[in-house]
Amino acid sequence: MSENHDLERELSEMLTEGEMAEEQSKEERERQLISPKYEVRIQTKHDPIVEETRQYRSMAKELDDRYDKYMDKVDQDPSGSTTEKE
Fold this sequence. Notes:
By secondary structure, this protein is mainly α. The chain has helices at about 1-35, 50-60, 70-75. The chain has a domain at about 45-80. The N and C termini lie far apart (about 75 Å).
């Protein structure tokens, strides 16, 4: 009989903890739906995507050309910086 009692107690604990976790995730979902008032944008002189792509290309050959258009835009930048032209 104590084994059944232990199983019922464990089940009760799991259900109680599950409900609490669900309420917390509901609050988190509501917070995510609220849009922020401000958006922070940072301008940099060096584009981390370009720098990383150049490092990878110096080590190995890429199998596909997914960054070629982006790299062509950057290479045509007359200022010499690695920022993308808009």
